[in-house]
Amino acid sequence: MEFTLKEKLIIASKYHKYKLSIETKSTFNGETLVILPDGDIAFEMAQLFYEKSTKKVTFLIKDSICSFYSNDIIQKSIKYTYNDMNTLGLPREIFIKKIISYNFENIIDLNANFSRFGAFLTFYCNPKVRMGFNYDNSKKYYNVILDSNYQQDLEGTFKMVKQFIKI
């Protein structure tokens, strides 16, 4: 997804301070944040990560679809609303600070298509591992890029993620 010049200027002016401060952060808690997409595949993916991961995994879920998840997954989740996004679909500064305060070591964006919210949140929180699927410009936001062929193969996606991080 291409940004207009106006959007690029807004992003550069609002979020430049995170680019400067992210290099000073070095304490991580060893946990993983999984950003779940809004689609149907997210429910099965969340259940798979919940059942098969041996380390602590926290999910990021939109509050409007929380009722579709099991109580076990909701208890291990951070919920976000449309109020946590600005008009460009990017995470607000207060929400970025909230996620940074958790000190996640890994953030996995499971959105198969480009999501401004997920990509920018992953980038500005600056964990050790920023993981997401391959699409245009994904190298700007992630340091580990998942093969897009695994997007529909849940087991394959989990195994590929497990190759890079201990979950």
Counted beta strands: 6
Structural class comes to: alpha/beta
Q: Largest sheet, if any?
A: 6 strands, parallel
- What count of helical segments does DSSP give? 7
Q: What is the 3D form?
A: globular
Q: What is the CATH fold-level name?
A: Rossmann fold
- The first-level CATH class name: Alpha Beta
Number of domains: 1
Q: How confident overall, as mean pLDDT?
A: 82
Binned strand content: 15-25%
Q: What are the segments in which pLDDT stays under 50 over at least 5 consecutive residues?
A: 20-24
Short overview:
By secondary structure, the protein is an alpha/beta fold. It has helices spanning 5-21, 41-52, 71-75, 93-101, 116-125, 138-141, 154-164, and strands at residues 32-35, 57-62, 77-80, 106-109, 129-133, 144-146.
Observed structural traits:
single chain; Rossmann fold; 6-stranded parallel β-sheet; 6 strands; globular
Walk me through what this model shows.
With 167 residues, the chain is α/β, with parallel strands linked by helices. The protein has a single domain, classed as Rossmann fold (3-Layer(aba) Sandwich). The chain has 7 helices and 6 strands, in the order H-E-H-E-H-E-H-E-H-E-H-E-H. The protein has helices at 5-21, 41-52, 71-75, 93-101, 116-125, 138-141, 154-164, and strands spanning 32-35, 57-62, 77-80, 106-109, 129-133, 144-146. The longest helix has 17 residues, at 5-21. It is globular, with a radius of gyration of 15 Å.
